[in-house]
């Protein structure tokens, strides 16, 4: 239950004056809320800058183009001539050093006469400019008299806006929201707070919304640092609670005999890389411990994670238990099945597959064998969570492309067995700062080297107007027997027209290259996609026009050429993933990135990085720099909440501290029931991490 103290903050925005249901819809968009926008969401919507009205020069000293507040005496009004409404209404004013014209368009005379009465002193604030060699201010932002001046906020926050909401509306809404901030118990360590000179939470929020100087709004100001640390601590605390929850039911030690692993390794057509061996040893050591394993295997595309997963599974099977391997897509699940099953057969390991496509008899039979324990590894998609999927004794859950699944899904799979060990794999190398942020609950193994014998990929960028040359080059490649991917982008907003573009390109290329050409896209049925991939893998077709459905995991080592059309539309991580489909065999590979000029700064930088490097870790770092963290993780698919206040560039270095802090807190107070623990519950609610509190209870 949410602490009652917080209720005013979780009230609907519509409880604020001036925000009706219609405006609330606009706020939803602005605040990124799918359902109801709440007061707390508005309070976390921080200004991006200020308008600084503190400059109070004499007119002689005004620098045109700047924002100033000046005291002027109103000399005369010059309304537009009758029937010429386009001519501005001008008011002449001056101080002892110079003149200023105040200019208004479509103004009402009676209103202006009241606002700026002739002969009086007024304080006007706004942006100045020079027109016709005269100093002017068009539509001053503020006009006040002596009494009003004392109340004029000289530093005004500027907020990100959305269509239909003005700056003044947001400021008014924030004005109404700030008094709802209750006095909250301090959840941070008091001595640390005072040493860092951090203001209390509520005061920090007030400072950012009501800055006294532009410096207050700098991400390294005391107020911002405090809130960022709060947010990071909430995140780390939630992860630590999750970790504690996952580990609480004691694990089962499954040491394994090594027998199956030996048979598998002997049957492999290659020898393991050093980092593969290390990862396998890490995993075996985890499995042998009576605690639950929670390990992430990070490795670039093509670094050979699948065989590590298989050997992990073999270890648990040696101990008489079963393993599940879950992939985010049908294609990928089938691909895993196709690679793993024959290798596993060498050691007498039975592998089955279960996706949304297995139905009826076939499905019943798999489930039956699974229950009896005669299926040792079950490969599948989300279908593995289904109610009637019951294992004989699931010991290890392996989740591939883990960023595409949420925490719930990890938990759902873990519930299919008793004390299930968990191995998650990701081919999107994640920068270290972010690993801690989002996966602080896991141990990490990394596959940093590529399997031996790989040749570097030659990556080039070309403007689309050189398409003819590209097509000629593809013709030559095909006649040499090479296999080519041709990727057309699929952008969600206009899936249909993008698909049309892919189909059109396919038709083009087919006219040129005939039967060698094939098409695979996301709208096709699963079985059709598989068939197209299988034809390509078998060499029956050699030029595969594809939308990004080939992005993940698909492995055709003979494919050595990739053309990516509209490469400027893809993110770095995606380009890297796509390119990872080639360069998997021992032949030289080429990647052609076609773009439509003119390129924006970021797109140019992305393509340049792609040309320079194949190192996924470096690409991930650059991606973070160019795009911000949400996109690196594909936040939208996985539902990992991003940050509202913390900025990785400025506050990233606090993550480690927050992590240690969270661990220390929980080791002293695992159920958050001391006074400080109660205060921390407030923190978790404020930052939407309260789901973690339920894990305490579920204990
Ligand atoms: P990913 O990490 O992208 O899942 P895969 O597991 O699909 O990579 O492996 C990519 C390719 O590399 C596969 O064809 C696999 O057979 C091969 N491979 C894996 N490990 C090695 C190795 N140690 N030496 C040579 N080839 C390997
Ligand atoms: Mg893989």
Provide the fold topology:
Elements: H1 21-31, H2 39-43, E1 49-52, E2 67-78, E3 89-95, E4 98-104, H3 109-115, E5 121-131, E6 134-138, E7 142-144, H4 146-149, E8 155-158, H5 167-177, H6 190-195, H7 201-209, H8 222-247, H9 259-267, H10 274-288, E9 294-299, H11 305-318, E10 322-326, H12 330-345, E11 351-354, H13 360-372, E12 377-380, E13 394-399, H14 407-414, E14 421-426, H15 432-439, E15 443-447, E16 457-463, H16 467-479, E17 483-487, H17 495-513, E18 517-520, H18 526-538, E19 543-546, E20 559-564, H19 572-579, E21 589-595, H20 601-612, H21 616-627, H22 629-632, H23 635-638, H24 648-651, H25 654-668, H26 675-686, H27 691-698
Parallel strand pairs: 4-6, 9-14, 9-15, 10-12, 10-13, 11-12, 13-14, 16-21, 17-19, 17-20, 18-19, 20-21
Antiparallel strand pairs: 1-8, 2-3, 2-5, 3-4, 5-6, 5-7
Helix pairs in contact: 7-8, 8-15, 8-25, 8-27, 9-11, 10-11, 11-12, 20-21
This protein binds adenosine-5'-diphosphate and magnesium ion (MG).
Residues 270, 272-273, 276, 299, 301-307, 427, 451-452, 553, 555, 557, 584 line the site of adenosine-5'-diphosphate.
Can you describe what's shown?
The chain has about 700 residues and is an alpha/beta fold. The protein has 5 domains: about 80 residues, no CATH class; about 110 residues, Nucleic acid-binding proteins (OB fold (Dihydrolipoamide Acetyltransferase, E2P), Beta Barrel); about 60 residues, no CATH class; about 190 residues, P-loop containing nucleotide triphosphate hydrolases (Rossmann fold); about 160 residues, 3-Layer(aba) Sandwich (Rossmann fold). Helices cover about 40% and strands about 15% of the residues. It has 27 helices and 21 strands. The chain has a 7-stranded parallel sheet with strand order 11-12-10-13-14-9-15, with helices on both faces. It has a 6-stranded parallel sheet with strand order 16-21-20-17-19-18, with helices on both faces. Helix 7 packs across helix 8. It is globular. It starts with 20 loop residues before the first helix and ends with a helix. About 0% of the residues have low confidence.
């Amino acid at each position: 239950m949410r602490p009652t103290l917080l209720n005013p903050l979780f009230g609907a925005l519509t409880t604020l004056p001036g925000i009706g249901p219609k405006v609330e819809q606009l706020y939803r968009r602005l605040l990124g809320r799918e359902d109801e926008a709440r007061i707390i969401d508005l309070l976390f919507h921080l200004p991006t800058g200020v308008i600084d009205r503190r400059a109070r020069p004499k007119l002689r000293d005004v620098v045109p183009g700047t924002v100033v507040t000046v005291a002027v005496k109103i000399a005369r009004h010059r309304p537009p001539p009758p029937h010429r409404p386009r001519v501005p209404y001008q008011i002449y004013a001056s101080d002892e050093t110079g003149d200023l014209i105040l200019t208004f368009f479509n103004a009402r005379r009676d209103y202006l006469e009241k606002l700026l009465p002739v002969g009086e002193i007024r304080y006007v604030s706004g942006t100045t400019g020079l027109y016709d060699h005269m100093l002017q201010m068009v539509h001053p932002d503020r006009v006040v008299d002596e009494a009003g001046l004392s109340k004029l906020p000289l530093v005004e926050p500027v907020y990100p806006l959305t269509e239909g909401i003005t700056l003044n509306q947001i400021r008014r809404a924030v004005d109404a929201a700030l008094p709802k901030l209750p006095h909250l118990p301090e959840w941070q360590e008091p001595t640390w707070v005072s040493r860092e000179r951090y203001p209390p939470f509520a005061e920090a929020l007030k400072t950012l919304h009501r800055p006294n100087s532009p410096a207050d709004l700098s991400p390294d100001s005391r107020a911002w640092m405090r809130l960022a640390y709060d947010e990071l601590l909430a995140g780390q605390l939630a992860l630590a609670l999750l970790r504690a929850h996952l580990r609480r039911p004691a694990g089962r030690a499954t040491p394994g005999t090594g027998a199956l692993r030996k048979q598998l390794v002997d049957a492999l057509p290659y020898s393991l890389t050093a980092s593969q061996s290390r990862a396998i040893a890490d995993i075996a050591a985890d499995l042998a411990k009576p605690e639950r394993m929670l390990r992430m295997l990070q490795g670039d595309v093509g670094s050979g994670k699948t065989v590590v997963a298989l050997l992990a599974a073999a270890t648990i099977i040696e101990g008489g238990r079963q393993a599940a391997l879950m992939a985010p897509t049908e294609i990928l699940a089938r691909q895993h099945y196709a690679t793993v099953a024959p290798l596993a057969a060498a050691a007498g390991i039975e592998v089955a597959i279960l996706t949304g496509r297995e139905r009826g008899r076939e499905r019943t039979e798999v489930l039956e064998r699974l229950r009896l324990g005669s299926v040792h590894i079950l490969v599948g998609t989300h279908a593995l969570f289904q109610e009637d999927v019951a294992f004989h004794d699931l010991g290890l859950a392996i989740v591939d492309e883990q960023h595409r699944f949420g925490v719930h899904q990890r938990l759902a799979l873990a519930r299919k067995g008793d004390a299930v060990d968990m191995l998650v794999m990701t081919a999107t190398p994640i920068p270290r700062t972010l690993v801690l942020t989002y996966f602080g609950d896991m141990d990490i193994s990394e596959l940093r080297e590529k399997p031996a014998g790989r040749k570097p990929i030659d990556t080039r960028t070309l403007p689309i107007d050189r398409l003819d040359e590209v097509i000629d080059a593809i013709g030559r490649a095909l006649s040499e027997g090479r296999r080519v991917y041709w990727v057309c982008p699929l952008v969600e907003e206009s899936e249909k027209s993008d698909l049309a573009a892919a189909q059109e390109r396919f038709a083009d290329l087919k006219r040129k290259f005939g039967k060698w050409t094939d098409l695979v896209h996301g709208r096709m049925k699963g079985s059709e996609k598989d068939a197209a991939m299988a034809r390509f893998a078998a060499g029956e077709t050699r030029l595969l026009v594809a939308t990004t459905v080939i992005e993940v995991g698909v492995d055709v080592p003979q494919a050595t050429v990739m053309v990516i059309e509209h490469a400027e539309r893809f993110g770095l991580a995606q380009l890297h993933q796509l390119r990872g489909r080639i360069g998997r065999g021992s032949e030289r590979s080429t990647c052609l990135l076609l773009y439509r000029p003119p390129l924006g700064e970021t797109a140019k930088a992305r393509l340049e990085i792609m040309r320079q490097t194949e190192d996924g870790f470096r690409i991930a770092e650059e991606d973070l720099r160019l795009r911000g963290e949400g996109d690196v993780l594909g936040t939208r698919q996985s539902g990992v909440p991003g940050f509202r206040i913390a900025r990785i560039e400025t506050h990233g270095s606090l993550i480690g501290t927050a992590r240690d802090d969270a661990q220390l807190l929980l080791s002293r107070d695992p159920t958050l029931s001391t006074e400080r623990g109660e205060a921390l519950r407030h923190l978790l609610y404020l930052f939407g991490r309260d789901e973690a509190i339920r894990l305490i209870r579920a204990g």
